[in-house]
Amino acid sequence: MNDLVQYDPLYYPYASRRNAVYGRNGMVATSQPLAAQAGLDIMKKGGNAIDAAIATAAALTVVEPTSNGIGSDAFALVWVDGKMHGLNASGSAPQSISVEKLKELGYEEMPTFGKVPVTVPGTPGAWAELSEKFGKLPFEELMEPAAKYAEDGYPVSPTLGFHWESAAKKFNQIFKDDIYKHWFETFTPNGHAPKIGEMWSSQGHADTLREIGATKAESFYRGKLAEKIDEFFKEHEGFLSKEDLAAYKPQWVDPIKVNYRGYDVWEIPPNGQGLIALIALNMLKDYSFTEKDSVDTYHKQIEAMKLAFSDGLKYITQQDQMDVSVDDLLSQQYSDERRKLIGEEALEPSAGEPPRGGTVYLSTADGEGNMVSFIQSNYMGFGSGVVVPGTGIAMQNRGHTFSFDSDHANSLEPGKQTYHTIIPGFLSKGDQPVGPFGVMGGFMQPQGHAQVVMSTVDFHLNPQAALDAPRWQWMKDKVVKVDPSFPDHIAQALQRKGHKIERSLYHNEFGRGQIIWRDPETGVLCGGTEPRTDGEVAAW
Q1: pLDDT tens per residue, range 317-342
Q2: Structure letter (DSSP) for residue 497
Q3: Residues contacting 270, CB < 8 A, separation 6+
Q4: Helix and strand element counts for the chain (H, E)
Q5: Which CA distances in Å does 203 have to 15, 179, 325, 391?
Q6: What is the CATH number of domain 1-272+284-290+358-540?
Q7: Catalytic annotation, residues
């Protein structure tokens, strides 16, 4: 058997004490048990991994609205018939927006909330596109589990309740304009966030999901729902229009990869930040790591990630507008030059010059060998704070990452896709899939990807053990946050190397991941779910 499936778990002090989950006919791993069960039920009805991913993703907009919604963006890596497929379902800035217009309105940078940072949502289009290309069951049927959760209600889970209450308290302090009243009507219907164990429902959300299902998402982009969105933004003098929605279509893209010690690590190409994880792994692959919890291992990981992030933040934007190519940034020559900067002391990172040439995540796998790595997000929790009245559609605020600097690669332009934090990952070996993985959580995501890959490949941890392991997150300059379980003696040693170590009081600052690995000989599936959230691996 594949040792990634067979290897015994290694638990860490704070971990959930879960074992890895095994199955054969199907598996869904995500951050909400109700959503995982929705996906598994779809497979039991004859659906494949793609159908299950769509149903799970739709359910997550209902059962984890603190992280995503119908107004989200999405990305997917899909393994079908021995080939990897990539889907970029991130929307662009409205055609009517510009830096000049925003400066005239008094903005000096992209705001975090409200009508301005709202970009075209890609998630409904992603669901429909995946179903059309690879699905087996009727699309309408895939929306029904989510619609039932929204209509009948469900009890709020612990991590969800914590984030919901935190958001409500914050929004009560900062959301004073009339445009935000529909957020409160939808998500605090009794004047407060639902408590843990309390029921919450949204009929508007249910109606919208059924409308999306019945029209294969056409209503969202070119029909009744598009009209409602357009009317709302016109009323509030916003920028998003029905013309922007009508022009949108998800893009099938060629995934990018690097080979890390015999395994291909796959990511979606820019505008996603998955490239950062690959740049870091490309530097790290020529080191020899013998011990996971050692000062040298953590030091080199952090230094490589700092350099990779510096490049990513400088160069990543819509791919056809990047100043350098992905191949240049992943070239062996450039990797060797950047690795030379890694010494014994922490460095101040800066971007190099290559040779020129809040999110929810889910994994699914079925008994036929199909596997999906899928991620969708509103960004920063609930997103923009803008909810289209009567629909349950919470709009994302992805435009916040745009720059006002016209010389920056990611400068705001009409119709442009911005730098995107959400990234699905996938591992394969030779011509066989190993499986999907992901670690949601803003700028933690490529850092989590690299840490999970190394825990798997270098240190032979199974999916649950890899997710249970202590994590770190580079923040800026020499500042590195470590989670509460991070070994204190290593934190002190890293401090002596010049890193400015900050120990966090919260596990949930370090991403929330899911993994499914598949044994190529037997087809046995092995899954793990994040102990930092309410996650579940549903197996069949």
Answers
A1: 999 999 899 999 999 999 999 999 99
A2: T
A3: 316, 317, 318, 319, 322, 326, 419
A4: 19, 21
A5: 37, 20, 46, 8
A6: 3.60.20.40
A7: 359
